[in-house]
Design goal:
This is ATP-dependent DNA ligase. The chain is α+β, with helices and mostly antiparallel strands. The protein is built from six helices and 22 strands. The protein has two domains: about 200 residues, DNA ligase/mRNA capping enzyme (D-amino Acid Aminotransferase, Chain A, domain 1, 2-Layer Sandwich); about 120 residues, OB fold (Dihydrolipoamide Acetyltransferase, E2P) (Beta Barrel).
Length: about 325
């Protein structure tokens, strides 16, 4: 089951029968299946349907703690240097056969469970969320489950959910909340849940655009690192027409000495499609809103353009740290 994006947590009357909120983790969505008969393997399935248990032998081994005939829905995460690391998770998910066990020992995976779709061989898709949550909590209590199995925090107090959104997302690896109706059944491939990501406001330099100089479509954003090199840190979502016109009035075509001359960028995270921007002089500062999914100073998701900051200069834009 999937979630549709919302800008804010809705009021108490938004969903009949009440609402629950869970923390939203920055990991890989996965389903975990324990055997129903002796000799069957533990299966770990990605959101795209691929079987990935071979890349997570530590979770397969730990599944001995779980009962047979169980299907869990949750998030795969990896701890590295005392915090959740999406980069380490990516490395594990794409590891070759020679390095899988070494990476598992160095950066063990955790499965953060937020739903149970089958227990004791009995399907629970038609059970309301409140009942499925009871079964999930009983599983963790009865089995005294410990990491790598983690029970996702849940609350039915929307004030608490707002506090999570405002303060818990300061922690790397937490990016928002997911809202679910207490009476909702589990409907695969349906966007029946809601997700609210925390968005932070910051600044970046406009280093390039797509579209034309008179009608930019999106912005390629940069920040200087501590060595003085301009690094691309993200791109915006498509610009609205009035914003594009205001930006166009301040753009200057770049000269041959632009630091991105000859550099190729990907259109999006993990994409092979190239982004081919028209380079502009990086002298305009854009105020932007981005979520908390940032790796080495780069936003993984497109950010939102807010406005031009004519009151600040490049010296006021945050710097990308050398170890980022």
């Amino acid at each position: 089951m999937l979630a549709q994006a919302r800008e804010s947590i809705p009021g108490p009357g938004a969903m009949r029968g009440g609402m629950a909120a869970e923390t939203k983790w920055d990991g890989h969505r996965a389903l975990l299946f324990t055997p129903t008969r002796t000799g069957e393997p533990v299966l770990l399935q990605s959101r795209g349907g691929a079987l990935i248990q071979a890349r997570f032998p530590d979770l397969v081994a730990a599944a001995r703690q779980l009962p047979d005939g169980l299907v869990l829905d949750g998030e795969l995460t990896v701890w590295s240097q005392g915090q959740l690391s999406f980069e380490s998770l990516q490395r594990r998910a794409s590891a070759g056969a020679r390095t899988i066990r070494q990476l598992a020992a160095e950066n063990p995976a955790h499965f953060i469970a937020f739903d149970v779709l089958q227990a004791d061989g009995q399907e629970l898709l038609q059970a309301p969320y409140a009942r499925r949550r009871e079964v999930l909590e009983a599983l963790f209590a009865d089995r005294a489950l410990t990491p790598p199995w983690v029970l996702c925090p849940m609350t039915t107090d929307l004030a608490v959910a707002q506090e999570w959104l405002d303060s818990w997302t300061d922690v790397p690896g937490l990016e928002g909340v997911v809202l679910k109706g207490l009476r909702q059944t589990y409907r695969p491939a349906t966007r029946g849940w809601m997700k609210v990501r925390r968005r932070n406001t910051s600044e970046a330099l406009i280093g390039g655009i797509t579209g034309t100089l008179s009608r930019p479509q999106l912005l390629a954003l940069g920040r200087y690192d501590t060595t003085g090199r301009l690094r691309m840190v993200g791109r915006t979502t498509p610009l609205k027409l009035d914003a594009a016109r205001r930006i166009a009035a301040h753009l200057t075509p770049a000269g041959s000495d632009h630091p991105w001359t000859g550099v190729r960028f990907a259109a999006s995270w993990r994409s092979r499609e190239p982004l081919e921007p028209i380079l502009v002089e990086p002298d305009q500062v854009a105020e932007i809103q981005g979520d908390t999914a940032v790796d080495r100073g780069v936003w993984r998701h497109p950010v939102r353009y807010v406005r031009l900051r004519q009151d600040v200069t490049a010296a006021d834009v945050p710097v990308v740290e050398e170890d980022a």
